[in-house]
Amino acid sequence: MIGKGMSLTGAGLLFTSKCVFCHHLKTGCTMSILIKNTLLDGAVVDVLIQGEHITEIGPDLQARADTVIDATDKAIVPSLINAHTHAAMTLLRGYADDMELHTWLSDHIWPMEHRLTQDDVYWGTKLACLEMIKTGTTFFCDMYWHMPGIIRAVEDMGLRAMLSSAFIDFGDAKKAAQFKKRTQEFFDRQNTSSHRIQFALGPHAIYTVSKESLVWLANFAREKNLLVHIHLAETKREKEDCIAAHGLTPVRFLKELGFLGPNILAAHAIWLDAEEMDILGQHDVKVVHLPVSNMKLCSGPFPYRRLRDRGVCIGLGTDGCSSNNNLDMFEEMKFAALARKSLTGDPTAMPAPEAWVCATANGAKIFSLNAGRVEQGMLADCLLLDLNHPQLVPNHNLISNMVYAANGDCVDTTICAGKILMQNRVVPDEQKIIREVKARVQALLQR
Question: d(Cα 158, Cα 137) in Å, to the nearest integer?
Fold first, then answer.
């Protein structure tokens, strides 16, 4: 995958994974699912899933399958892609709200994160995966600490993810050397993670990573063919501090370093002038819009239309649960569309189909996934929506309903990689995850 994340498959873990609705270990098993009588693009059809792919779509399919789902009064749609979050920050949901970004980070979030253990992050990520499964997301792009715990949680919960371990050196040469060594060792060794997991580099931001480290990371990414996941131009202060330190705005600064390219995923990208937007478009930089987080932290208005018109691929994300405070991508679509209308005074700005594409097909494009649509040959990452849910009645226009009316509770069934992760809104072991997280948060607060 040119300029994208690296997928590392380890047979030892892949072939001893437990199928979600089975009680025994499967050894490289290929499961099949036949979904009957589901609504797809206005027509009632059957959908056959074999292994990880959709293999046939049509009326009244006469196929045999391991699992048959009666999807009468349900619509099948592609699952959602959360293009930027910090999953284990579920542990900090509601912990430090209503603050300015830099004060929030420096005085509250970073000190609390310093106390987290790998097991804390494992359970916090499992809670995030549970929330995403319940609200229809099957792929998320993460940036956080304690990577082994995150990998284990994603493997256990059955989702897809791109994981980037945070790189922060604050200009300290000793810290930079430690992070570089850790990064080099991680990508040099034979990793044993699921094929559902990709890995990326995670420099936090230009104000937390030194110029020298940014150059090193850009070169390392090109050498290893990796995506680089970074916060960029999020606040007015970031822009002003960059000008004071380097005489350039953030995008111009990264351009001068030779950092920008089609493998860069920039989260936020708010404080941009016209030339900087041109630069992002010319370098095929991917951008993630985070409407709820941006509003909560008062980061500023996102230039959606101007970036879109320059050909920039724009995905949607939730950010972490400390600055959102949930992971519901249905809610994110609604906020994205309504914010554009409110800011521009134009009710036609970011119509519902564009918000839907940002949360599905654009995310698939960013992460090189054969997903984002329900079609033969595509990955079997999909949802069944309950058309009898009050928020989806009446069904004049399903996409409009999904963007403007629905929330994650409208999802009845979540399927990822051809496996049922939730059916009838039940996820295996969800109460166990909730109990464990509650206990761990209490212990964390007492440390």
Answer: 12
- Tokens, residue 71: 């999807």
Using an 8 Å Cβ cutoff, are 205 and 235 in contact?
no
pLDDT of res. 11: 25
Q: Where in the chain is the domain with CATH 2.30.40.10?
A: 11-78+385-429
Instruction: Return d(Cα 361, Cα 372) in angstroms, integer.
Output: 4
CB atoms within 10 A of CB 292: 21
Segment 168-172 mean pLDDT: 97
d(CA 76, CA 374): 8
E strands present in 131-221: 137-144, 160-167, 197-203
Q: CA-to-CA distance for 43 and 105, rounded, in angstroms?
A: 49
> Full-prediction pTM beyond 0.85?
yes
- Round to whole Å and give the CA distance between 1 and 18: 28
Average pLDDT over residues 384-391: 98
- The span from the CA of 402 to the CA of 388, in Å, is 13
Give CA–CA dist 386/48, Å, rounded.
19
CB 187 within 8 A of CB 224: yes
Number of residues that make up the chain: 447
CATH class, domain 11-78+385-429, is mainly beta
Residue 301 pLDDT > 60: yes
State the CB neighbour count (10 A cutoff) for residue 300.
17
d(CA 213, CA 113): 22
Whole-number Cα distances in Å, 169 to 178, 214, 265: 9, 10, 20
3-state per-residue secondary structure call for 388-421: CCHHHCCCCCHHHHHHHHCCHHHEEEEEECCEEE
Q: Give the tens place of pLDDT for each residue, 213-226.
A: 999 999 999 999 99
Q: Name the strand (E) or helix (H) holding 40.
A: strand 32-40
pLDDT tens-digit series, residues 427-442: 999 999 999 999 999 9
CATH topology of domain 79-366: TIM Barrel (3.20.20)
Torsion of CA 106, 108, 111, 116, to 10 degrees: -130
Kindly report the average pLDDT of the chain as a whole number.
92
Q: Which positions ≥6 away from 435 have C-beta within 8 Å?
A: none
Pick from 443, 444, 446: nearest CA to 115? 444
Residue 4 pLDDT > 60: no
For the record, the structure tokens of 154 come out as: 């994603």
Quick check: 77 and 402 in contact, CB under 8 A? yes
Residue range(s) of every CATH 3.20.20.140 domain in the chain: 79-366
| CA distance linking residue 262 with residue 41, whole number of Å | 32
